[in-house]
Protein backbone atom coordinates (compact mmCIF):
# COMPACT_ATOMS: atom_id res chain seq x y z
CA UNK A 1 0.00 0.00 0.00
CA UNK A 2 1.10 3.57 -0.62
CA UNK A 3 1.30 6.33 2.01
CA UNK A 4 -1.72 8.00 0.38
CA UNK A 5 -3.79 4.80 0.61
CA UNK A 6 -2.84 4.32 4.25
CA UNK A 7 -3.69 7.96 4.98
CA UNK A 8 -7.11 7.48 3.35
CA UNK A 9 -7.74 4.48 5.58
CA UNK A 10 -6.82 6.54 8.65
CA UNK A 11 -9.76 8.83 7.91
CA UNK A 12 -12.37 6.05 8.03
CA UNK A 13 -14.58 6.45 11.10
CA UNK A 14 -13.65 3.22 12.90
CA UNK A 15 -9.98 3.49 12.02
CA UNK A 16 -9.84 7.12 13.14
CA UNK A 17 -11.54 6.21 16.43
CA UNK A 18 -9.13 3.34 17.01
CA UNK A 19 -6.13 5.60 16.38
CA UNK A 20 -7.56 8.15 18.80
CA UNK A 21 -7.91 5.41 21.42
CA UNK A 22 -4.26 4.45 20.92
CA UNK A 23 -3.23 8.09 21.35
CA UNK A 24 -5.29 8.37 24.53
CA UNK A 25 -3.52 5.31 25.95
CA UNK A 26 -0.12 6.65 24.91
CA UNK A 27 -0.82 10.05 26.47
CA UNK A 28 -0.55 11.94 23.17
CA UNK A 29 -4.19 12.80 22.53
CA UNK A 30 -3.70 16.54 23.09
CA UNK A 31 -3.08 19.11 20.34
CA UNK A 32 0.70 18.71 20.67
CA UNK A 33 0.64 14.91 20.56
CA UNK A 34 2.08 14.69 17.05
CA UNK A 35 5.29 16.45 18.15
CA UNK A 36 5.76 14.87 21.55
CA UNK A 37 8.87 13.04 22.70
CA UNK A 38 8.73 10.19 25.15
CA UNK A 39 8.46 11.93 28.52
CA UNK A 40 6.45 14.90 27.28
CA UNK A 41 9.01 17.26 25.70
CA UNK A 42 8.12 18.67 22.29
CA UNK A 43 10.11 18.74 19.06
CA UNK A 44 9.79 21.42 16.39
CA UNK A 45 10.23 19.85 12.94
CA UNK A 46 8.09 17.32 11.11
CA UNK A 47 10.77 16.82 8.48
CA UNK A 48 11.83 13.49 10.01
CA UNK A 49 11.65 11.47 13.19
CA UNK A 50 13.51 13.56 15.80
CA UNK A 51 15.87 10.64 16.62
CA UNK A 52 16.54 11.68 20.16
CA UNK A 53 17.12 9.28 23.05
CA UNK A 54 15.21 10.33 26.17
CA UNK A 55 16.06 8.95 29.61
CA UNK A 56 13.32 9.41 32.18
CA UNK A 57 11.96 7.53 35.20
CA UNK A 58 14.32 4.63 34.59
CA UNK A 59 13.30 4.20 30.93
CA UNK A 60 15.38 4.93 27.82
CA UNK A 61 13.44 5.51 24.61
CA UNK A 62 13.53 7.22 21.23
CA UNK A 63 9.71 7.13 21.03
CA UNK A 64 8.20 10.19 19.42
CA UNK A 65 5.00 11.42 17.80
CA UNK A 66 1.33 10.69 18.34
CA UNK A 67 1.92 6.93 18.26
CA UNK A 68 5.32 7.01 20.00
CA UNK A 69 7.24 5.49 17.12
CA UNK A 70 10.68 4.23 18.07
CA UNK A 71 13.43 5.42 15.78
CA UNK A 72 14.09 1.91 14.46
CA UNK A 73 10.36 1.31 13.95
CA UNK A 74 9.99 4.47 11.94
CA UNK A 75 13.03 3.64 9.80
CA UNK A 76 11.55 0.22 9.03
CA UNK A 77 8.23 1.81 8.02
CA UNK A 78 10.01 4.32 5.77
CA UNK A 79 11.91 1.52 4.02
CA UNK A 80 8.69 -0.40 3.45
CA UNK A 81 6.22 2.36 2.64
CA UNK A 82 8.41 5.36 1.66
CA UNK A 83 6.86 7.86 4.05
CA UNK A 84 8.26 11.24 2.96
CA UNK A 85 8.15 13.00 6.33
CA UNK A 86 6.94 12.87 9.93
CA UNK A 87 3.89 15.10 9.51
CA UNK A 88 0.65 14.27 11.37
CA UNK A 89 -0.87 12.81 8.20
CA UNK A 90 2.08 10.47 7.69
CA UNK A 91 2.10 9.53 11.38
CA UNK A 92 -1.55 8.48 11.07
CA UNK A 93 -0.75 6.57 7.91
CA UNK A 94 2.21 4.86 9.58
CA UNK A 95 0.04 3.87 12.56
CA UNK A 96 -2.38 2.24 10.15
CA UNK A 97 0.58 0.41 8.62
CA UNK A 98 1.51 -0.94 12.06
CA UNK A 99 -2.08 -2.04 12.69
CA UNK A 100 -2.08 -3.70 9.29
CA UNK A 101 1.23 -5.39 10.06
CA UNK A 102 -0.31 -6.91 13.19
CA UNK A 103 -3.14 -8.37 11.13
CA UNK A 104 -5.70 -6.17 12.89
CA UNK A 105 -6.80 -3.76 10.15
CA UNK A 106 -9.84 -5.82 9.11
CA UNK A 107 -10.87 -6.05 12.78
CA UNK A 108 -10.53 -2.31 13.22
CA UNK A 109 -12.58 -1.51 10.13
CA UNK A 110 -15.29 -3.98 11.19
CA UNK A 111 -15.46 -2.62 14.74
CA UNK A 112 -14.10 -5.75 16.39
CA UNK A 113 -12.38 -3.67 19.04
CA UNK A 114 -11.26 -6.37 21.47
CA UNK A 115 -9.73 -8.48 18.69
CA UNK A 116 -7.92 -5.44 17.31
CA UNK A 117 -6.56 -4.44 20.73
CA UNK A 118 -5.41 -7.98 21.43
CA UNK A 119 -3.46 -8.10 18.17
CA UNK A 120 -1.94 -4.64 18.63
CA UNK A 121 -0.99 -5.03 22.31
CA UNK A 122 2.58 -5.96 21.37
CA UNK A 123 2.89 -2.82 19.23
CA UNK A 124 1.80 -0.26 21.84
CA UNK A 125 2.90 -0.86 25.41
CA UNK A 126 -0.01 1.12 26.90
CA UNK A 127 -2.75 -1.08 25.41
CA UNK A 128 -4.53 -3.70 27.53
CA UNK A 129 -2.68 -7.02 27.43
CA UNK A 130 0.68 -5.53 26.47
CA UNK A 131 3.53 -7.74 27.76
CA UNK A 132 6.12 -5.02 28.27
CA UNK A 133 5.52 -4.24 31.93
CA UNK A 134 4.79 -0.54 31.41
CA UNK A 135 1.62 1.22 32.66
CA UNK A 136 -1.40 0.05 30.66
CA UNK A 137 -4.98 1.20 30.23
CA UNK A 138 -7.82 -1.26 30.67
CA UNK A 139 -10.30 -2.35 28.01
CA UNK A 140 -13.10 -0.28 29.50
CA UNK A 141 -11.06 2.88 28.99
CA UNK A 142 -10.17 1.97 25.41
CA UNK A 143 -13.82 1.21 24.61
CA UNK A 144 -15.04 4.46 26.11
CA UNK A 145 -12.57 6.57 24.12
CA UNK A 146 -13.25 4.59 20.95
CA UNK A 147 -16.99 5.20 21.17
CA UNK A 148 -16.55 8.86 22.16
CA UNK A 149 -14.44 9.36 19.02
CA UNK A 150 -17.15 7.94 16.78
CA UNK A 151 -16.20 4.28 16.58
CA UNK A 152 -18.90 1.69 16.04
CA UNK A 153 -18.63 -1.72 17.70
CA UNK A 154 -19.23 -4.66 15.42
CA UNK A 155 -19.90 -8.33 16.18
CA UNK A 156 -16.99 -10.32 17.56
CA UNK A 157 -15.23 -12.53 15.08
CA UNK A 158 -15.67 -16.24 15.66
CA UNK A 159 -12.22 -17.77 15.83
CA UNK A 160 -12.07 -20.89 13.64
CA UNK A 161 -9.78 -23.66 14.64
CA UNK A 162 -6.39 -23.17 13.06
CA UNK A 163 -5.86 -25.75 10.33
CA UNK A 164 -3.07 -28.18 10.96
CA UNK A 165 0.11 -27.43 9.03
CA UNK A 166 0.57 -29.93 6.15
CA UNK A 167 4.04 -31.03 7.29
CA UNK A 168 2.69 -31.73 10.78
CA UNK A 169 -0.26 -33.71 9.42
CA UNK A 170 2.09 -35.74 7.22
CA UNK A 171 4.40 -36.66 10.10
CA UNK A 172 1.77 -37.46 12.73
CA UNK A 173 0.69 -40.96 11.55
CA UNK A 174 4.28 -42.23 11.73
CA UNK A 175 4.83 -40.68 15.14
CA UNK A 176 1.61 -42.10 16.53
CA UNK A 177 2.49 -45.52 15.16
CA UNK A 178 5.93 -45.39 16.78
CA UNK A 179 4.71 -43.86 20.06
CA UNK A 180 1.30 -45.44 20.76
CA UNK A 181 0.67 -43.31 23.84
CA UNK A 182 0.19 -40.31 21.54
CA UNK A 183 -3.26 -41.65 20.67
CA UNK A 184 -4.33 -40.46 24.11
CA UNK A 185 -3.47 -36.91 23.08
CA UNK A 186 -4.29 -36.90 19.39
CA UNK A 187 -6.58 -39.80 18.67
CA UNK A 188 -5.93 -41.94 15.63
CA UNK A 189 -6.88 -41.97 11.97
CA UNK A 190 -9.36 -39.24 11.04
CA UNK A 191 -9.70 -38.21 14.69
CA UNK A 192 -6.26 -36.61 14.54
CA UNK A 193 -7.36 -33.87 12.17
CA UNK A 194 -10.24 -32.94 14.47
CA UNK A 195 -8.00 -32.04 17.41
CA UNK A 196 -6.54 -28.65 18.12
CA UNK A 197 -3.62 -28.17 15.75
CA UNK A 198 -1.56 -26.49 18.46
CA UNK A 199 -1.12 -29.67 20.46
CA UNK A 200 -0.14 -31.58 17.29
CA UNK A 201 2.47 -28.98 16.42
CA UNK A 202 3.79 -29.06 20.00
CA UNK A 203 4.11 -32.85 19.90
CA UNK A 204 6.03 -32.70 16.63
CA UNK A 205 8.32 -29.99 18.01
CA UNK A 206 9.06 -32.05 21.13
CA UNK A 207 9.89 -35.15 19.09
CA UNK A 208 11.92 -33.16 16.58
CA UNK A 209 14.05 -31.68 19.35
CA UNK A 210 14.46 -35.04 21.10
CA UNK A 211 15.85 -36.80 18.03
CA UNK A 212 17.83 -33.85 16.68
CA UNK A 213 15.85 -33.61 13.44
CA UNK A 214 15.74 -30.48 11.31
CA UNK A 215 12.09 -30.88 10.31
CA UNK A 216 8.97 -32.91 11.04
CA UNK A 217 9.48 -35.39 8.21
CA UNK A 218 13.02 -36.18 9.29
CA UNK A 219 11.80 -36.65 12.87
CA UNK A 220 9.17 -39.13 11.69
CA UNK A 221 11.72 -41.07 9.64
CA UNK A 222 14.17 -41.30 12.54
CA UNK A 223 11.53 -42.39 15.03
CA UNK A 224 10.27 -45.04 12.59
CA UNK A 225 13.66 -46.50 11.65
CA UNK A 226 15.88 -46.00 14.71
CA UNK A 227 14.91 -47.69 18.02
CA UNK A 228 17.16 -45.34 19.98
CA UNK A 229 15.49 -42.30 18.44
CA UNK A 230 12.09 -43.84 19.07
CA UNK A 231 12.90 -44.32 22.75
CA UNK A 232 14.29 -40.80 23.04
CA UNK A 233 11.13 -39.41 21.47
CA UNK A 234 8.89 -41.47 23.75
CA UNK A 235 10.82 -40.30 26.81
CA UNK A 236 10.60 -36.68 25.70
CA UNK A 237 6.86 -36.94 25.12
CA UNK A 238 6.36 -38.58 28.51
CA UNK A 239 8.38 -35.87 30.26
CA UNK A 240 6.24 -33.16 28.65
CA UNK A 241 2.76 -34.58 29.34
CA UNK A 242 1.60 -31.61 31.36
CA UNK A 243 2.85 -29.13 28.75
CA UNK A 244 1.27 -31.11 25.94
CA UNK A 245 -2.06 -31.38 27.70
CA UNK A 246 -1.94 -27.64 28.41
CA UNK A 247 -1.30 -27.00 24.70
CA UNK A 248 -4.38 -29.02 23.89
CA UNK A 249 -6.52 -27.16 26.36
CA UNK A 250 -6.62 -29.84 29.03
CA UNK A 251 -4.26 -28.14 31.45
CA UNK A 252 -3.15 -29.83 34.65
CA UNK A 253 -6.58 -31.34 35.16
CA UNK A 254 -6.43 -32.92 31.74
CA UNK A 255 -2.99 -34.30 32.42
CA UNK A 256 -4.17 -35.91 35.62
CA UNK A 257 -7.12 -37.44 33.81
CA UNK A 258 -4.71 -38.81 31.25
CA UNK A 259 -2.61 -40.38 34.00
CA UNK A 260 -5.71 -42.12 35.31
CA UNK A 261 -6.44 -43.42 31.81
CA UNK A 262 -2.91 -44.75 31.47
CA UNK A 263 -3.21 -46.53 34.81
CA UNK A 264 -6.24 -48.37 33.45
CA UNK A 265 -4.42 -49.75 30.40
CA UNK A 266 -3.97 -53.54 30.70
CA UNK A 267 -0.38 -54.45 31.53
CA UNK A 268 -0.06 -56.74 28.52
CA UNK A 269 -0.65 -53.75 26.20
CA UNK A 270 2.20 -51.68 27.66
CA UNK A 271 5.50 -51.90 25.71
CA UNK A 272 7.51 -51.43 28.92
CA UNK A 273 6.04 -54.64 30.32
CA UNK A 274 7.07 -56.62 27.23
CA UNK A 275 10.58 -55.17 27.35
CA UNK A 276 10.89 -55.90 31.06
CA UNK A 277 9.68 -59.48 30.53
CA UNK A 278 12.20 -60.08 27.78
CA UNK A 279 15.04 -58.73 29.90
CA UNK A 280 14.01 -60.82 32.88
CA UNK A 281 13.89 -63.94 30.71
CA UNK A 282 17.45 -63.23 29.60
CA UNK A 283 18.51 -62.75 33.21
CA UNK A 284 16.99 -66.07 34.25
CA UNK A 285 18.77 -67.81 31.39
CA UNK A 286 22.10 -66.45 32.59
CA UNK A 287 21.35 -67.43 36.17
CA UNK A 288 20.34 -70.94 35.13
CA UNK A 289 23.50 -71.41 33.12
CA UNK A 290 25.74 -70.27 35.97
CA UNK A 291 23.97 -72.22 38.70
CA UNK A 292 23.49 -75.55 37.00
CA UNK A 293 26.03 -75.80 34.21
CA UNK A 294 29.29 -77.49 35.22
CA UNK A 295 32.59 -75.58 35.41
CA UNK A 296 31.48 -72.58 37.50
CA UNK A 297 32.95 -72.03 40.95
CA UNK A 298 30.76 -71.29 43.95
CA UNK A 299 32.29 -67.81 44.25
CA UNK A 300 31.27 -66.93 40.68
CA UNK A 301 27.79 -68.33 41.24
CA UNK A 302 27.39 -66.28 44.43
CA UNK A 303 28.50 -63.09 42.67
CA UNK A 304 26.11 -63.64 39.76
CA UNK A 305 23.14 -64.40 42.01
CA UNK A 306 23.90 -61.33 44.14
CA UNK A 307 24.15 -59.09 41.08
CA UNK A 308 20.91 -60.42 39.61
CA UNK A 309 19.03 -59.98 42.87
CA UNK A 310 20.36 -56.41 43.12
CA UNK A 311 19.18 -55.59 39.58
CA UNK A 312 15.76 -57.10 40.22
CA UNK A 313 15.49 -55.11 43.46
CA UNK A 314 16.43 -51.85 41.75
CA UNK A 315 13.98 -52.39 38.89
CA UNK A 316 11.17 -53.34 41.28
CA UNK A 317 11.85 -50.34 43.46
CA UNK A 318 11.81 -48.08 40.43
CA UNK A 319 8.47 -49.41 39.16
CA UNK A 320 6.79 -49.33 42.56
CA UNK A 321 8.36 -46.05 43.65
CA UNK A 322 7.54 -44.24 40.42
CA UNK A 323 3.97 -45.48 40.24
CA UNK A 324 3.11 -44.99 43.89
CA UNK A 325 5.02 -41.72 44.21
CA UNK A 326 3.41 -40.25 41.10
CA UNK A 327 -0.01 -41.31 42.26
CA UNK A 328 0.57 -39.79 45.68
CA UNK A 329 1.72 -36.50 44.15
CA UNK A 330 -1.34 -36.47 41.93
CA UNK A 331 -3.58 -37.12 44.95
CA UNK A 332 -1.91 -34.34 46.94
CA UNK A 333 -2.28 -31.86 44.09
CA UNK A 334 -5.87 -32.87 43.56
CA UNK A 335 -6.64 -32.16 47.20
CA UNK A 336 -5.38 -28.58 46.93
Characterization of this structure:
- The structure is a single chain.
- The protein is mainly α.
- It folds into three domains: 3-148, Lysozyme (Orthogonal Bundle), CATH 1.10.530.10; 160-265, no CATH class; 267-336.
- Helices cover 61% and strands 2% of the residues.
- The chain has helices at residues 3-10, 13-26, 71-81, 88-101, 105-110, 113-120, 139-148, 166-178, 183-186, 197-211, 216-225, 227-239, 241-247, 251-263, 271-292, 298-335; strands at residues 54-56, 59-61.
- The chain has a two-stranded antiparallel sheet with strand order 1-2.
- A hairpin with a 2-residue loop joins strand 1 and strand 2.
- The longest helix is centred in the last third of the chain and has 38 residues, at 298-335.
- The chain starts with a helix and ends with a helix.
Detail the topology: elements first, then pairings.
Blueprint: H1 3-10, H2 13-26, E1 54-56, E2 59-61, H3 71-81, H4 88-101, H5 105-110, H6 113-120, H7 139-148, H8 166-178, H9 183-186, H10 197-211, H11 216-225, H12 227-239, H13 241-247, H14 251-263, H15 271-292, H16 298-335
Antiparallel strand pairs: 1-2
Helix pairs in contact: 1-4, 2-7, 8-10, 8-11, 10-11, 10-12, 10-13, 11-12, 13-14, 15-16
Amino acid sequence: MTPAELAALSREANVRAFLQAIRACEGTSGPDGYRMHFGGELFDSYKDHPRRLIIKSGYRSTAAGAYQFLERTWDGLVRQYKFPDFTPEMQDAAAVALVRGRGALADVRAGRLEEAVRKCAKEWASLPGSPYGQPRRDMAYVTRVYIEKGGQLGPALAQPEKPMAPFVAAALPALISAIPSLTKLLGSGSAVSERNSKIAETVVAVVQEAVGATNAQEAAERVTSDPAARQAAADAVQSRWYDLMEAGGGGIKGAREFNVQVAQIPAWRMPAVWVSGALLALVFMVVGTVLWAPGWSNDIRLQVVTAVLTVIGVVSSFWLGTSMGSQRKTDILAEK
